[in-house]
Every structure is written in structure tokens, then in C-alpha cells.
Amino acid sequence: MTMRARGRRSALAGGLGVALLLTGCGADEIDGGDSGGGGAEAAEFELDCAPYEEFGDLEGETVNVYTSITDPEDQPHIDSYVPFEECTGVDVQYEGSREFEAQLVVRVQSGNAPDIAFIPQPGLLGTLVETGAVVPAPEQVEANVDEYWEESWKEYGSVDGTFYAAPLGANAKSFVWYSPSMFDEAGYEIPETWDDMIALSEEIAGTGAKPWCAGIGSGEATGWPATDWLEDVLLRTAGPEVYDQWVNHEIPFNDPRVVEALNTAGEILKNPEFVNGGLGEVQSIASTEFGDAGLPILDGSCWMHRQASFYQANWPEGTEVGPDGDVFAFPLPPIGDEGAPPVLGGGEFTAAFSEEPAVQAFQTFLSSPEWANIKAQTSGPGWVSANTGLDPENLESPIDQLAAEMFQDPDAVFRFDGSDLMPGEIGAGALWSELTSWIANDKSSEAVLTDVENAWPAS
Q1: Residue 436 · residue 221 · CB < 8 Å
Q2: Given 3-state DSSP classes, what are the helix, strand and coil percentages for the chain, each rounded to the nearest 5?
Q3: Strand partners, 322
Q4: What is the mean pLDDT of residues 79-102?
Q5: Where are the domains of the chain?
Q6: Which tens digits make up the pLDDT trace of 294-313?
Q7: Half-sphere exposure (CA, 13 Å, Cβ side) for 311?
Q8: Which PROSITE patterns match (predicted)?
Q9: pLDDT tens digits, residue range 237-252?
Q10: Class for the domain spanning 3-172+345-408
Q11: What is the pTM of this model?
Q12: At the topology level of CATH, where does 180-341+422-455 sit?
């Protein structure tokens, strides 16, 4: 069902917990009431309407937005558009669908494309660009992305050298969850290098405990968490250039450097002294649902669990997430040279199917640091952006704040989830099943990667 943002302004006034000062365009001031939604502390900032005046008189225009983000996660998005609507007079109409990916392609092919769609995979963006329906991003959007994002984000929103889609939200996958109180009581330090992390694992194992818990079960998608392990390690052992070559199949899938990376991941995941705390033996990783895999940390039967920032939603109600809470996370350390660890992640991109001025103005708003900060304050835990103009203090969750800081580290290298960039039959097919066999049947790294290489489509 289409949801109209204009009818929800009263929710924003009580939810932001901030005063939004709309300047230019003769906009009225919106006063924030008690904190709700994201629960942000009282703050004050200005949304300057001047950048949208160059698009002309937009009063009464409509922009249709189509996304995979549905109730209840859609409401913070709807609320975050209100300042733009007040500035411009544009009516933003929001529609979320659980069949987004399939239906978007159908709508585009039938000539019924939305004005803007939030696309979660660069591969899908490429498919849509091939239809000729996606229009290049306006210069105002490109200028924002050049200024506020690490350069690889622009590349993921481009096809054949043309920039189409600015990044929107993001998620960081390169985290290790742990119990701060358990670490403090045992006198353990947060490891800053991979070698430190392995040494800590050995120290914990020496006490008779299992340092790691893991699970790659996910119904028909079983195996995907193991792809994140491989990608994170490959970024650290071989570097971003080799990672890009591997993702694009410019080197064989079973290149010796990829074999080395999977073997390095296996030093943890296939080590019976290290796993699977509170859950079983090594093979139990294949049958343990990923959402349950970190829970043994809470009862002390596991010490560390590698999973993305979004795992915060899987902790039981009442679990405090934070540096002094029940659980928190540290960045998965670098391998080799010390420095900022690479960041593996994902996100959405705003693709437009219309060149109308109202659409371009809204694209510009969504690519701005102003929108990122407004969205941070309408959202609760679980949302973050890689926009460097985002103030992490506007994020409610400590893990989201840490993710934002990682994205904004000028020395950190970001790469998009590789399996999401590969052909579907590989990234969401052969790689999942082969890595499941790697765990469940102790299949060798060489055999796993060779079988994926042989499954890569010819064209």
C-alpha cells in the first residue's frame, strides 16, 4: 500500500527530539517534542532550503519512491522526508514491497517505473541500467557523493563509467561480538591485529573453553555467513585490488591467494579447539541458524562471534549493547601490517527513472549530510550511513556509532559484499553450497573453490 509522507508530519514533530530550522523558502520552524523514534538527545541544526531553489518552483509536485523497506522500518524513512517537503512543497509518496526486486524489474519492463527506487545490490542496478530506464544522477548528487563518500561507493553506483545512483544507508560486516564484562574479568584486551586475536583464541582454548561460536544456517540461503568470512579475510590477506579482481572474475575463483584466505578463515572455523562454543563441534556450524550463533556469549560458553552490525537485532530483548553493556563488538583486526582494518559491508543506492526537477531535487536531498543526520535521528538502532557528513552522535546505538566511525576513517578501505556483486548462480548459489560443504563435510578449500570456479557462467 502506498504511504504518503505528508500525512505523517505530526509523528515527526514528536519523534525527532530536535528542532529543525528550515531556512530559505519561507519555511516554518518545526519544534521537536519529547524524544522518540531514534531517541536522540536534543540538538539543533539547520536545513538550508537554498540548494533546492535551483530546481525551480516544485510546489505541488509528486515523487514516487519504491523500496524493499517495509513496516515498521519504513516509518523513519517517511518521517525523514518531511523537511524536504516543507522546503519544496513536493509530496513524497513512499511504497515498500517485500517482492521489491522481482516487482521492480516487472514495473520497469512494463513502462511503470517509479520515480526513484532504493536498490540494495549494484548488480541489480546494472541489470536495470541495461533496460535504458535508469537516468544518470544530476550533477548536484554527484558533487555530494564526491565530497561525502569514500570513492569506492561512487564506483558501486556507476555502470560502465556513468554515475547513476548515490549511496543511501549502509551496513558494516567486519565486527567481532564479545562480552565486555567477561573480557574485563579475565583480563583480556581487545586484539588489534589478527595475530593478537589468534593468540587470544589460543589462550582461551587453553582454559578448556571454546573461544568462538558460529553458525551459517539460513534456510535456503544457508552458507551466506561463511562468504563474509572469506571476503573479510581475503581483503586482509590479499588486499583490495586482488579482492576486486576475484569478485569480477578477472582471476580464477580458486587463485592461490583465495585458497590462502579460505584456509586462514579455516584456522578458526575448522579448528575443533576454537569452535563451536555452546553449540557443538565444527560441523554444528553448518546447522546452527546464524541468528542464534552468537547467543552462547550471553551464558559464557562462547567468547567471540564474527557478524555484522545488524546482528544487534538478534540479541534477546533486554540485552544491553555497548562498551559497558552485556555485549559489544570490536572491528575484525587487520592481518599483517597494523593500521585501519578494511571494512566489508553493503548498502542501498538511489536510482532514478525520471529527470523531472522534483525527482532530481529529492535525489540531491537524499545524498546530502543533512538528510543523513535527520534520518539518524528518526531511526532507532540498526541504521547507519557511510556519508562522512553524518555525526555519529546522532545515532542511538553504540554499535551504529562505531560502524559510522569505521566508514569515516580516511585510512580504512571499504569494499562491498563480494557475493552480492557476483552472478546470482555463484554469489547466491554455488558459493553458499560449497562453503556449507567446507564446514559440514570437511571439504578442502582447494576443492571448494575449484568447484565454484567450474560453476562460473561462461558469459
Answers
A1: no
A2: 45, 15, 40
A3: none
A4: 94
A5: 3-172+345-408, 180-341+422-455
A6: 999 999 999 999 999 999 99
A7: 26
A8: PROKAR_LIPOPROTEIN
A9: 999 999 999 999 999 9
A10: alpha beta
A11: 0.87
A12: D-Maltodextrin-Binding Protein; domain 2 (3.40.190)
